[in-house]
Amino acid sequence: MSDTIHAPAELHELPDDARIQAAAVLVAKPGSPGFTGEIGGSMAEFSADYMGYIEEYLDADLELVADRVLAILRSMGELHQGFAVSQLDHALQTATRAERDGADEDMIVASLCHDIGKTFSNMNHPAIAAEMMRPWVSDEAYWVVKYHQDFQGRHYYGRIGMDPEMRRRHLGHEHYAMAERFADDWDQTAFDPHYESETLEHFEPLVRKVFTRKPRRG
Predict the structure, then answer these.
(1) Residue 9 confidence (pLDDT)
(2) N or C: lower Cβ tally within 10 Å for the chain?
(3) How far apart are CA 160 and CA 153, in angstroms?
């Protein structure tokens, strides 16, 4: 299949699975295959033709976002950080609780992905996760993930010498109530080794639906 695909523009003609496989081959090719014009060594030197060429490859790269998100989530099965459940288990519990509580699609996916920043570092992980998903999810889901630790702090900050009411700095924000619901009902309760959560495979179609949307810029 990859031998018959010569340009990113041809990807839209393929069925889903073949399109993703072809995109993975395309974006992994070294150099700038097929481009015959001058390139230059800095972005200031890139021609309009070359920038158009690059944009096509970046569009092809978007086909792989959902697979990357799923791969990150799977890797979290090896991340425990001393907890009784893995970070994948925690993510699945949080998303399951959100789904069973009637949350919308964006909040379910945000609940699943809210701690993916921990794969880099626990420090500042909410902001890392929020910015990773921002182009694809609602403003509400983005905001809740970005500030969820301020709300989560009510349940443990007092035991580590921090202000447990840090959430109050956000009083009056339009998404305050959802952030409380997320932190109090779904997130902080999702460390139970006996909780029967849905599997990652259960959430995979929704992950693919959200992360194949046309992303927002900015």
Answers:
(1) 67
(2) C
(3) 10
The answer to whether the CB of 116 falls within 8 A of the CB of 152 is no
- Residues in the chain where the model's pLDDT stays below 70: 1-7, 9, 218
The reported pLDDT for the residue numbered 5 is: 46
Closest by CA to 195, choosing from 74, 73, 75, 96, is: 96
This prediction has a pTM of: 0.89
Q: What is the assigned CATH class of domain 81-210?
A: mainly alpha
Angstrom distance (rounded) from CA 126 to CA 29? 33
Region(s) of the chain under CATH 1.10.3210.10: 81-210
d(CA 69, CA 71): 5
> For residue 40, what pLDDT is reported?
87
- DSSP per residue over the chain, as a string? -GGG--SGGGGGGS-HHHHHHHHHHHHHSSS-TT--S---SSGGG--HHHHHHHHHHHHHHGGGHHHHHHHHHHHGGG--TT-SS-HHHHHHHHHHHHHHTT--HHHHHHHHHTTGGGGT-STTHHHHHHHHHTTTS-HHHHHHHHTHHHHHGGGTGGGGTS-TTGGGGGTT-TTHHHHHHIIIIIITT---TT--PPPHHHHHHHHHHHTTSPPPP-
The DSSP code sequence of 149-165 is HHHHGGGTGGGGTS-TT
